[in-house]
């Protein structure tokens, strides 16, 4: 009887505190609560996996749990389930950065409930650490990352790419000395490069605690901005533009209304997912609007003559976002929005060059039927096995716009400067010159850079600078560079710095040795055969290269990584490069086995699997097995089977 009275008293007291807590919660989270109330009775839009705030009762449930927590000691354990409800709230309100920086704050003293978890958690925390540069996990007994070689206390977020001795080995410390005192310059050259950046884009982050940090993280922008500041470039030599959120009317030209509403709906949830790797939190919709708005305004400023060129330091990225789908870390397609804004400002033809290691399937989908926008993409493809699987050379456009989609699909990982510059010389520039764009936009993903954990390619800052310099000859120098991917902080920082230096009018530096790999040359020839149907000026280039093939200088074996290191079938894999990613170390390449022989071997294995089951060899169908393999001349266990 006393227990029932005590529980009744606790419930009444909990109801009183619940009402008070609801009022406080509504004041603290008014915008989120209003957004939920507006959608009372509606379901979450299709394509979004919401993990928090899934219904309108989530606030009442959490409030009830917190109200009863204060009297838990008097409830004889009867309200244990309400007490536990307070723990997720503490974790959900914290950002991903806070979770990794303050793991010790998760200890709540309730050893009875967490007795089976605490020992394991302490063991993991004491033996592993995540590299701030590439996010890869390392054991506590090592002080340098096994993948990128950076020290566990690498402070790139404060000092940029000048934070460790590796920068000196790569020759980047000279950059800082070159720009010392440059903020005092006031020449016409320094005032014509605009940069778009807003700190509110840093609020877009993955809230849910996972075993591995998400590669698309706020530190990407922090590292680039710290490097630019240390070099005296921005703030300094570049001109900032004011941030603006894109309007729905501007987005509707590129995306469907359903897509726009789905992205906006995420502002009502602490955490949600469009795909397993494409997250959103309550700030993501605002960050996506800011990114698209900055790209649109930079494009308009360049077309109007207020800026000669520009760099959009934005996130979330955009080139995977299609007409109605958010995927591949992307919410709104920033490059597409910028192209439409340029056309509104007077540009008749816009060129988009996408050198992100992943194919920009979203950008291609948006413009594949348009003759006013030429889309050129250089990406790792591997016959469709590399994410997202699109972007084959045969994808040239639709509905009368054939030839206005140009795809250069690399056959393997490890592609470097020489292959990219070679493709620029023989494919990108000849087509672009004939197209004669009024504005050139670069979807500048730096995940093909040396050391990137997902791209596993070998492009250096000098290579990116050379490609940027080659594109400045188009559209009277009107060039807009938009940040896409890139997940090694040192790689993206040094590469972005090299690109902006070219935008400022500096020379790209050392010349890139243009000797393509065998796989790279083969890809270029295949693309030329496809595209010469639509661009006749390529026919002479193809004929010349074919005649020079026997004597053409080719890097035998270069450009292809081992299968284990390629990360085939996904966005890449751990361990693609060695410790020192800036040394000219080619030990990870395969010099003794060409890609042709590897593909032939794979086809033979596949053919053997498809012909007949292996158990025919020992059963009643043994004669049929020997007949098939003997007539076809296929090797079985290293020996060629033939008829007796």
UniProtKB/TrEMBL annotation:
Classification via PROSITE patterns: ZF_RANBP2_1
Cofactors: Zn(2+)
Protein's cellular compartments: Nucleus
Main location: nucleus
Domain RanBP2-type residues, every copy: 129-148
Coiled-coil spans in chain: none
Alphabetical keyword list: Chromatin regulator, Hydrolase, Metal-binding, Nucleus, Repressor, Transcription, Transcription regulation, Zinc, Zinc-finger
Catalysed conversion reaction: N(6)-acetyl-L-lysyl-[histone] + H2O = L-lysyl-[histone] + acetate
Xref: SUPFAM superfamilies: Arginase/deacetylase
Annotated GO MF terms: histone deacetylase activity, hydrolytic mechanism; zinc ion binding
EC number annotated for this UniProt entry: 3.5.1.98
One GO CC annotation: histone deacetylase complex
One GO BP annotation of this record: epigenetic regulation of gene expression
Family matches, as InterPro entries: HDACs, His_deacetylse_dom, His_deacetylse_dom_sf, Ureohydrolase_dom_sf, Znf_RanBP2
The family this protein is said to belong to: Belongs to the histone deacetylase family. HD type 2 subfamily.
PANTHER family: HISTONE DEACETYLASE (PTHR10625:SF5), HISTONE DEACETYLASE HDAC1-RELATED (PTHR10625)
Protein name in the entry: histone deacetylase
